[in-house]
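Page 47, continued from p. 46.
Same chain as before, 546 aa.
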Amino acid sequence: MNSVPSSAAVVVPTEPPICPICHDGLYSPKNRKFVGRRVAIARPCGHKFHFKCLSRWTKDHLTCPYGQEVIKHMVVKKLPLPRDWKNQMINAAEEGDIKIIQALLQRGAKVDAGRTAGITPLALAVANKHLDAALLLAGRGGSDRIGLSDLGRLFHDGGEGIPLDLHKAEHWYLKAAELGDIEAMWHLGYLYQFGGEGFSIDLHKAESWYLKAAELGDIGAMRSLGIVYAHGGEGFPVDPHKAESWYLKAAELGDTTAMNNLAYLYHHGGRDFAVDLRKAEHWYLKAVGLGNICSMSNLALLYLEGGEGLPADQDQGKSLLFKVAGLGDAVAMSNLGCLYADGDNGFEKDLHQAKSWWLKAAGLGCAEAMKQLSYLYLHGDVGFPADLHQAKIWFLKVVELGKDPAIIASAMYMLGRLNHFGGAGFEVDLHEAERWYLKAAGLGDVLAMYNMGRLYQYGGVGFEIDLPEAERWYLKAIELGSPLAMSSLGHLYLRGGENFPEHRNKGKRLLLKAAELRRNLAIKKLEKASKPQPAKKRGFDEAFPE
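Result:
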C-alpha cells in the first residue's frame, strides 16, 4: 500500500469509489468539507471511508458500517501526487478537464503548478475560455495576477457562451489589481469610467485606478486620465489643465493618441483654457509623422477652417482629408459626409455625396456615420425626402454596433421618439416607445427620462395615464438638471389630476427654477455666439484597445 508506482502508471482517478457513510466520492467529493487525500481504512476489514466520516461514525459505533466487523483501528491513507502532476494540471487546464483539476488539487497540487504569472493553469484555462476550470482555480487561491485580470476580461467582454457580467469583471480585476497588475488597474478605470448595463459610472473611482496605473508608468492610464479630465461627468468637473498635463506626459513618452488628443484640446479649447491653433498644428503634425491617421484627419479640418493665429488653407485641408479617406479611415469619410451635408469650408452642399461618404464609413463600422445617416433620413432636406423606416434601421445599427454609451443612448432615445410620435408612414407604438426610453434612461439619457414622464402624464391609445409614475420620471430628469422636466412637473403640480393632488407651492417653485435655468442657458448661448467659434469637433480619438 505504501509503494509508489512509476509516473507512467499513476493515473488520477476520475470515477472514484464511494464512501459508504456519506455516499460521496472518496477521491473527488463534491462536498468541500471532505478532503479527498484524507481517506481512512478500517482495520482489519479494509473498507475505505472519508476520514471525517469514519471518525464521526466510531464515536457511536464499534463495528464497520459496511461489513459489520469490529473496527480495531483505522489507517489514514494519503494519496500521492503523480510525478508528472504539473503536466497533467497544465493539460487539464488547456482542455478544461475540471475532474482532473479537482482530483489533483485534492491530492495537494499547487494551483500555479510552479509556473509564473501568465502561464499558470489559471491563465491557460482563461485563454481557452474554460470558465468552470478557471473559476475553480481562481477560487482555490490562484495568485496569477495576469490570469485573474484575464478572467475579469472574460466577464467584461462576454460572448462565446460566457455571460457579460460587469460586477464579476470588477471582482476579478480587483483581485488582480491588489496583486499589482497594472492592466487590471487600467481595466478597472475603464469599467468605472464607462459603466454599462447594471453597472454605474463612477469617475472618482476611475480616476483613482488610472492614477495607480499611471504612477506605475502605464502610458495608457496617463492618456485615459487626460480623457477623464477633458470630458468630466456627473459630479466630476471638467479640468482641461489636468487633461493637458496627463496628455503631455503620455505624448512625451511617444503615445500618438495622446498627441492627437492634446492637439484636439488646443484646437478646441475649453473652460478657462484658450484655443492655441499653432500648438494644435504642432502636435497633430508630430502624431501624423508617427503614422496616426486620426491626427491627419483632424489636421485636415484645422487647415480647412483655420482660426486666430492660423489662416485657413482649404486646398491643403481638402487634399489631406481625401488622402486619409483614401487610406480607408472611417472618421475621415464621416467628416467628408458632414462637410458635404453642411456645405461649408469650400465644399458645396450635396446630401447625396454626404450619404455616399457616410455609407462608406458605416460599412467600416463607424457609429458616428450611422448616426448621421439616421438623422439624414429622419429629417430629410430639399431633394432628399425623409424616410422614417430607414432612419429606424440606422438607429438600430448604432445601438447594435456602437461602442460609445452616449451615442448608443441617443439612438435608443430617438427610437423611443419615433415610436412615441410617429410620422409619415410610421405608426405610433407607445409600448415600444416606453421600451426604448427605458433602455436610454438606463444609460443616463436625460431626454429619455423626461419623455418617460410625458408618456405617463398624457398616455395614449392602449397606454394608461399614471401621474405618480410621470412624477417619478420627471424627478429623475430634474436630478440631472433638465429645465424641461422642471417645467412639466411644475405644471403637473399646479393642475393635479386623478389620484394626484395639487401641489401649488411646489409647482410655482419648480416653474421659477426652470425659468431661471433657461435664462442662464440663453445667456450662455448669447455669450458663445458673440465669440469666434472654434473648429467643429470631429475626430477625437480615445483609442481604447479592443
